[in-house]
Amino acid sequence: RPRVLSGIQPTADSFHLGNYLGAVRNWVSMQDTHDAFYCVVDLHAITMGHDPVALRNRTRLSVAQLLALGLDPDRCTLFVQSHVPEHAQLGWVLSCITGFGEAGRMVQFKDKSAKAGQDSTSVGLFTYPILQAADILLYQADQVPVGEDQRQHLELTRDLAQRFNTRFGQTFTVPSAYIVKDTAKITDLQDPTSKMSKSASSPNGIIELLDDPARSAKKIKSAVTDTGREILYDEENKPGISNLLTIYAALTNRAIDELLEMYDGRGYGDLKKDLAEVLVEFVKPIQERTRAYLDDPAQLDKILAIGAEKARAVSAVTLAAAYQNVGFVSPA
Ligand code: AQP
């Protein structure tokens, strides 16, 4: 079975629809076809300044949401990044083969540091994609299921794997990004050419899975749509309605063409009203299951302890090989 690895940051009180449709939904289906490793990347979550109490809560909340969305610890390895020290250890080694200019070309870093200003930008934010490369390479992952926004980071990971292998001998599998085109970029409901994002979307532009369903329904109904009245899938000229069609199709497992047939001759209002209902029915059981997992912290801790042990069994082997190949003396 091919191996997959992916991660999600515990940086908000809820995942948003982009996180689910762009990434986690694929994680769930890949459990049956791949040897799957998924982690809540708390080391990444401290790169932008954070509150320790919120981080701890959000880490548990993230794990509970992943389980509620369909990750099954019997069919995948689910763990928290900081429980596996090899991530930070390999991150250091990889940072020593990454060019300063190379890291500086990462678009996400440029955007986030420009927004934060130089004095509020941490070195950790700069080296974040290198740690992400370590996350992936430690597990010898073949594929990494992510949204479109992660493509450049995946390219860096591939470059680092190849560079390390060339300089120090075959050590890492060179992974590829697994990006499902249809749902690779869910956009902001109020600004449908930008991605739906925790840090950049306005409150009405983002659908949070754990938000009050009635409020999410309202946001769908007040989503920005386009000029004209016809329901068409046209990302360029009708980005708003195309985004709603993408969300609708993904949540109901229908093809966009089928939706276009269903709404032939009908207006935007009908589509929004129906999608709002679909969304409410989708989030309600997820919210219930998330609550149930949170109500049993001992079970969550147990799942995470087993996950960390399974993750370390793989990551320790890779780190030992990397240390050996790079020239470190093994401890007696
Ligand atoms: N809008 C999106 N459409 C499709 N996929 C998306 N992802 C994020 N936004 C979208 C994918 O979700 C996974 C987890 O990403 P993350 O933990 O790095 O979250 P994030 O990128 O911090 O989420 P945001 O909202 O995009 O945060 P900011 O505002 O910080 O940039 C990844 O696979 C990502 O591709």
Automatic annotation (TrEMBL):
**A cellular-component GO term for this protein:** cytosol
Where in or outside the cell it occurs: the entry states: Cytoplasm
Report the PROSITE patterns cross-referenced here: AA_TRNA_LIGASE_I
Q: Does the keyword Magnesium apply?
A: no
**Which InterPro entries does this one have?**
aa-tRNA-synth_I_CS, aa-tRNA-synth_Ic, Rossmann-like_a/b/a_fold, Trp-tRNA-ligase, Trp-tRNA-ligase_bac-type, Trp-tRNA_synthetase
According to its UniProt record, the EC number is 6.1.1.2
Listed binding positions for ATP are 9-11, 18-19, 147-149, 186, 195-199
Name any Gene Ontology BP term.
tryptophanyl-tRNA aminoacylation
Annotated residues that bind L-tryptophan are located at 135
Say if the entry is tagged with keyword Translocase: no
One family name in Pfam for this protein? tRNA-synt_1b
Catalysed reactions, semicolon-separated:
tRNA(Trp) + L-tryptophan + ATP = L-tryptophyl-tRNA(Trp) + AMP + diphosphate + H(+)
What SUPFAM superfamilies does this protein's entry cite? Answer: Nucleotidylyl transferase
Report the domain of life of the source organism.
Bacteria
Q: Which UniProt keywords apply?
A: Aminoacyl-tRNA synthetase, ATP-binding, Cytoplasm, Ligase, Nucleotide-binding, Protein biosynthesis
Please list the GO terms describing molecular function.
Answer: ATP binding; tryptophan-tRNA ligase activity
Q: Where is this motif: 'KMSKS' region?
A: 195-199
Cited CDD domains:
TrpRS_core
What family does the entry list? Belongs to the class-I aminoacyl-tRNA synthetase family.
Give the quaternary structure: Homodimer.
Protein's job: Catalyzes the attachment of tryptophan to tRNA(Trp).
Protein name per Swiss-Prot or TrEMBL: Tryptophan--tRNA ligase
High-level lineage: Bacteria, Bacillati, Actinomycetota, Actinomycetes, Micromonosporales
